[in-house]
Amino acid sequence: MQRFLSVIKLHLTSWLSNFFLVHHYYNICPRFTLLLLCRWKDADIKEWQSTCNLLLEVCTKMGADLSSRAKLIEVESMPQEEQKISEWQQKCLVLEQDFLSREETRILEIEKLQSENIWLQKRLAEKLQQMRHQNDVIEELKRDLIESVQQTEISEGRRLCYEHKIKMLEEQIDKLMMSQSGTNIFKAKSEDFLKSKKMETTHSTVNFWQNQTQKEILCSKNLDKFPVDLPCYEQSEEKA
């Protein structure tokens, strides 16, 4: 019913508004009509005011609802964002710690390799110096060995020469003994004396040459033992 009356009022007001456009209408319009129109205007104003108030209440409610919903959305979204941010921060911290640990291990490995390299260089220098010393000793031993071999060959030649001389002297003695066996006694006695002298000198000579040969043989035996001592010397050098 109110809506129907409001529609009638709207039609009347629209008709009267067109009618009021006539010039000097207020001068010819009666007072009762003017009062009615004023009341209608007041009613319209009140109705529009109430409508506006309702709209204002609705808008305020909607605004409050929207603000509350926005706050709820913000409250709901903020923990998720903060949680995501905290998760990413934790991941960054884990990665940073992993990087730092790997960097420390890398630095330690580099220092270890450098120390091992220095130790190996020192050890290599010591080995090179030891090898040079051993090479010098080996060269010296080789020279000594060559000299001893040469001396051994010379002594062997001397020994053979001495033996040949001894054999020749023995043959000469035998020939003298055989050739002078049929002579007289006087000559035999005198010659026996001479032969005894010759025999003494011959035996002394033979003994001398035999002693020389024995000395040479002993020297050669000692020289034969010399190369056997060489590995022992090398082992002692390696142990040192």
How many domains, in number, for the residues?
2
| Number of helices in the DSSP assignment | 4
Beta content: under 5%
Counting helices, strands and paired strands, the structural category is mainly alpha
Portion of residues within helices: over 70%
Average pLDDT, all residues? 70
Bulk shape: rod-shaped
Radius of gyration: 72 Å
User: Low-confidence segments, ≥5 residues, pLDDT <50?
Assistant: 223-240
End-to-end separation: 128 Å
Biggest sheet descriptor: none
Following the backbone from N to C, one meets helices and strands in this order, namely HHHH
- Tally the beta strands: 0
Keywords: Coiled coil
Coiled coil: 110-144
Question: Notable features of this structure?
Answer:
single chain; 240 residues; mainly alpha; 2 domains; 0% strand; rod-shaped; disordered C terminus
